[in-house]
């Protein structure tokens, strides 16, 4: 790994530009912004560095500090890699994660000082204005809806003027009862509370006491035969093809959508995907089986460019066209009450089905045990046994038919 400096201007006519730390690894070049803007006359083009001028000493100090932090990250990655190559993409990704964590901690500390006696409704608007952009676009709409529920509850219950000091367990319990009274599914109540917890946590509130309702659903997975049907079905629409291919990658790799969408050539080493989970920060090493390698190759070693929302919409159509339509009985929880309903299987397919299919069908097909599946997916053994690896009647019947 080598480091250097680059000076870049937005337009050729500009008199100033930004300084970047360039990270070189073989043919890879990744740029890390220093945040420092200087005049072009202060840049030594021949030596690719700042000129020795007194007014640039502060800028040079910032650049030196960033280079030092990059070297520290590289050192830690090498220790963790156990002999595997550390690429420029991996280095920049880890550096960015560390920087964002430090920034988030500072923001939380600043907000505790500034919040004072401002109303909770004011703080929700401020949080949405400044923090929602940190979340994926597919998540932002849900967060706005969840915060909207909380604001409406405050207004309806006569607590519109409640301040940060009023954010106590009693207020939270009242909000939970309000949500249950809307006759929402338990999964919707849980999602709303989870997203509101992010806001509460940003205010320094201890969210460990906010328990999410049990919204465990019946596990729906695709069988090996259904995977083959989906692979071979003729789909005329490009969007359906992308949704099918992205979904199959989830089935064959066992990754979360947020991690799969980050995959590129820089994360692929010796037939494996090596990256750090966005949600947990845990390093993953995912073997690329032939079916996944073929799909990745078609898209230049990347996931097809399609949002999670579009995948969830289109995969139901693709599965219907593939003939995955048999009726399935599922139990739903709405307003704290359970209902048994029967739906065509294709209507129950979503991105979550992909991970469950890998854990329940694909990985066991390679003879992997629960410890090995845990290592690949990054999910704990307790989570796998309690939620993903419940006995599947469909797979049991299919196995018995083959005897």
Description:
This protein has 403 residues and is of the alpha+beta class. Helices cover 51% and strands 15% of the residues. The protein has helices at residues 57-81, 88-115, 120-131, 137-156, 169-181, 186-202, 224-232, 238-253, 257-260, 290-298, 308-321, 351-365, 370-377, 381-388, 393-401; strands at residues 2-8, 16-25, 28-39, 43-44, 49-50, 268-269, 272-276, 283-287, 327-334, 337-344. Helix 3 (120-131) packs antiparallel against helix 4 (137-156) and helix 8 (238-253) packs antiparallel against helix 10. It is globular, with a radius of gyration of 25 Å. It starts with a strand and ends with a helix.
Structural class: alpha+beta
Strand order of the largest sheet: 1-2-3
For the sheet with most strands, the description reads:
3 strands, antiparallel
- Gap from first CA to last CA: 55 Å
What would the average pLDDT be, to the nearest integer? 86
Keywords:
alpha+beta; 15% strand; 403 residues; 3-stranded antiparallel sheet
What is this structure, in a nutshell?
By secondary structure, this protein is α+β, with helices and mostly antiparallel strands. The protein has helices at 57-81, 88-115, 120-131, 137-156, 169-181, 186-202, 224-232, 238-253, 257-260, 290-298, 308-321, 351-365, 370-377, 381-388, 393-401; strands at 2-8, 16-25, 28-39, 43-44, 49-50, 268-269, 272-276, 283-287, 327-334, 337-344.
